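Worked example 2:
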Amino acid sequence: MSSKAPTTFQHQETEEGRYPWWKVFSLTGVDLFSSLGYQPGIALLVAGLLSPLANLALFLFALFAVYPVYRRVAEESPHGEGSIGLLTHLLPGWRGKVLVLVVLGFMATDFILTVTLSSADAAVHLIGNPLAPSWLQGHQVGLTLLLIALLGFVFYLGFREAIALAVPLSFGYLFLNTLVLGAALAHLELEALKGWWTRLLQVYPAPEAMVFATLLAFPKLALGISGYETGVAVMPLIRGRPEDDPQRSLGRIRETHTLLLAAALVMGGFLVTAGMATTLLIPEEAWRSEEVSGRAISYLAHRYLGEDLGTVYDLVSIAILWFAGASAMAGLLTIVPRYLPRFGMAPEWARQQRLLVVFFTGMAFTVTLLFRASVEAQAAAYATGVLVVMTSSALAVYLLARREGQKEQGLYGGLVLLFLYVLVANVAERPDGIKIAAFFIAATLLVSFTSRALRSFELRVETFVLDEVAEELVRQLQAQAGPLYLIAHHPKPKPDYAAKERRVREVAHLPPREAVFFVEVYVPDPSEFSTRAKVWGINHPDHRVFRILGTAVPNTLAAFLIYLRDRTGKVPHIYFEWPEEGPLQAAIGFLLFGEGDIPTLTQEVLRRAEPDPQKRPRVHGGG
């Protein structure tokens, strides 16, 4: 462990492995734009004649609610921390960690189901294509698993390969949708438009009734706005500018703003156009047919461009639906290594990309088999996950604005209420979604706390950063002829070092002339797992004290003893007074508050960290 604080980062951060915003936009876009494959058909079923207006409401929601929230999130997370990072900073301690884990559970629901649902829908399109061989019928589960395995393989190779596929898929799919919708709307007659409006007024004669019905319908179309959290999560892939500060790349933030705005405008434009074309040009009696359900724009492609171009559209739709999981996989590979290992709630191998790819692919396999690759069975949980993640982002932005006293806090507070309305309306309509998402949350919490308990005896200190006085005390220890004697002292407002020293010397029979040093550990946030521990020294004629900021007392003490051994070349001795609490109380205190039976736990951490008893610092207890 190093004793020095890292020097200021002077050189510009490398831009190798980073890309222009429009390329990263395509990686987010494969998730966002792929919903054009099924969202217009869903809109016909849930909104009916109101489909164009419901899609317009969704567009306005994305532009004036989702975009402002994620624009602010991007400003605070240039390295891709996202709303999770904001919540972690704004809500410290265990309440913040539990909230973050719950949101991560919903985020896992969102991202994993993006992979499984999109792959399942791609399999449906493949099997339903007129040119598909008959032997594919009845093999939807197998096809879905194959598509997920191929996606995992692409990410096993790396992000470069994923982006290389995402660019042509996203822009090719948008071009084909422009072609299809343009050809379809060219056949739209004014009489059809007037007829639609007349029928709408017959059903909703009062304008306020039409607006109210639209507000009730558009939350059910929330699948059309997924992908924004991923757009922030993949920010580290966006190329900044040479003059940018590596710690806060303003160029990358501006490029991300452009990405998010482009996503809202492009997707909104397509949704409104598709809503109009599918509602007015597809016969109402066909809305619930297999030919239209889940593939409404494909129906228009075959009808207005012919079978050949319609088949090309189908194939590209299948490809982008398959690859829609790429943005979700990118989000998982960015978010999980950043938070769970740091909280001690995942093993260290969770920082390794390829192992994570294998793990998430296995999870996607499991979900697919559990739901038998049914798109409908997964849709409710997917929408719930999307909306909870977005609501948490709005909450994070509101809390940040309130803490900083910004005048926009009222606006962000209103957006939180708007997101809550959309979430509650969606859950009320499809309550199964929250039940399925609860499984992911429970699994996240169980795995996280189990991992933390199993890893609780690690040293948990990344490095020690000493001030000048602490460095001087270490030099005194190095120059000392005899053994190193330290006394563990519980921090108190008015510490009585002299009384503690007398008791320890009496119990341990320490010679009166042997110098002793006190060590105190302060734990400001026991919910944190590891830290760069700061060490202050107090040096006056009577007592010499090391004061350390750590995340757990026994682990910090053990790490500091090993650190002193390595700095001085001597094996330290540390002396404790035995605590008064019982074993159960001590265990709970250790896991939750970083304290507990400190002498015994310090010895156990040292035993695991240093297998050689001759090199292991000595722990003594008494009193």
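The two ends are 32 Å apart (CA to CA). The first strand starts at residue 461 and ends at 466.
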